[in-house]
Amino acid sequence: MRGMNPLLLGIDGLSYTSFMKCNPRTLFTLFSSTYRGVVLNKKPQFPQTSWMSVLELKDIKDMSAVNLNNEKPRLLKETNAVAINLPITNPTYGKLSLPYDTSVNAEEEINKVTQIVLELIEESPVIASITAIDRLLHKDPTEKCKIYSLVDSAVRKILNKVDDFIIFSLYGEPKGENEDGNHEDYGVFLATIPRPSEHDTVKLQEIGELFIKLVKKEYY
Amino acid sequence: MNDELNDPELQKILSKKANQILNSLKEKVEEPVKHLNSKNFEEFITKNKIVVVDFWAEWCAPCFILAPIIEELANDYPQVAFGKLNTEENQDIVMRYGIMSLPTVMFFKNGEPVDQILGAVPREEIEVRIKALLE
Description:
The complex is a heterodimer.
Chain A: E1 7-11, H1 19-22, H2 25-33, E2 35-40, H3 47-56, H4 74-79, E3 82-84, H5 106-120, E4 126-130, H6 132-137, H7 144-159, E5 165-168, E6 186-191, H8 204-216
Helix pairs in contact in A: 3-8, 5-7
Chain B: H1 2-6, H2 8-30, E1 33-36, H3 41-47, E2 50-56, H4 61-76, E3 81-86, H5 91-97, E4 104-109, E5 112-118, H6 123-134
Parallel strand pairs in B: 1-3, 2-3
Antiparallel strand pairs in B: 2-4, 4-5
């Protein structure tokens, strides 16, 4: 039986510019069969503040304004979604919590995220992140297509069980050796929900708004 | 012949020409695909014999799939000038060439449009048109 709960899956650092080189088949299929867009997020881009902008539905530039000890981010409250591996804290936030450094390899992270998403999507909406591309490619860009292949397989497995989804990246390919705010300005957006204006770039806040509509089924 | 080479006037001309070539190569290495706009477009397509222009927009996902292919070709074909034009910011050029869908890759020879490709296509499809223009 297919789970009917929606999924918001962030694949941090995923970029259309690597699609031809790495040829991720499932993502290519989604590219031609779902509503697609380009996420615009200009430098400097950091995983914490970019994710918080999605989760708070407003532009967050500084993590000092965020208190995660006392309350959940707005998007989690409004959708009753469960969080998995969100890089808004280190270790990551949610049911799966991993160190945000190079100590966890791509395969281990992606397998764990996939397994927990598949377990929990039956019960409630899920907001999850795969951080491997962003976390590991700053240090070793040669691993790119290997990680794309792992991500692609994970997406295929997950979508076998999910009807409504938004798959996105906060920004494009990581640049430079460290996580110091340097990525391509353009991320990926593939979804089962249409956007009001497809000839506009997707803003981070808009992703949260669209996920609320997906959960509340307001677009049918 | 040696006398001619020692001619200071000729030396000056040769040196100027050499600098021009070096500058154009430097420009090509620094920016293999030149960012075009309404101000530099005309000069770019007329100054260079064979030109490939990638018409794109920020919201256009297939444009980002195509972009690295154009960049790769620009590095592999230094004798061809490659440019990219943001269609949202340069509507006059878009109107002039009747660009209706994105991405569009337009090929120019001696300043005139001679061919075009629509959509994000594999490298080979663009390369075969470039080779035909170079023959």
